Amino acid sequence: MGIVMFKKSLFVILILSLSACTVRPTTPVSTPAENQVDSQEQAVYAVLLPKLYPASTSFVIMDTTATDVLGADNTPQVVDRILQIMYGVAPATADNFRARNDKAYPVGPDMQIGVNYVLLSWPERNKIFGQNTSGWEEFYNNYPQTPGITTFSRVGFNTTFDQALVYIGTQSNWLAGAGYYILLKKVNGVWSIDQKITAWAS
Fold first, then answer.
1. What ranges do the domains of the chain cover?
2. Whole-prediction pTM
3. How do residues 54-78 score in pLDDT, each as one tens digit?
């Protein structure tokens, strides 16, 4: 009986030891490269918003990315068209833009972009504009001092993080708004606009 109990105790100890040694899943940790992309992307947004909309004190930003007014489904065709007009875009920048905008991605609610902003989902947008023609009046009652509804793409970078390509567009009323493809360059650690191409206007 004593031997049986000893064997049972030894078995339990062995199981506990193996459990303690089991590798448990860990929370994914962002790599330095991913952190650099995130910080540089936010720095690009922070430069563009006050440059494009200097009179605005706050922004309403769609909570998913897009590469033009129609969304993100036609990114390759849009980029090809823009690259026929825009000069000096490094192949790595264009390729990175295409790869990072292969679909719509969520926009972070905690971006540090130097301005006040709220995120707007498509269901919320449809609720405002889907009922009647006074949607914009309701929108500006809810979100005064904004330029309208702003949409970003993700930012494409070259390998040295001194060139960036991004789409940004804002709809301000039923027949008012514009979207741009913007090429930026970084000199002495500061992003500035190099070229701006109008993708659409109404």
1. 30-201
2. 0.80
3. 999 899 999 999 998 665 566 778 8
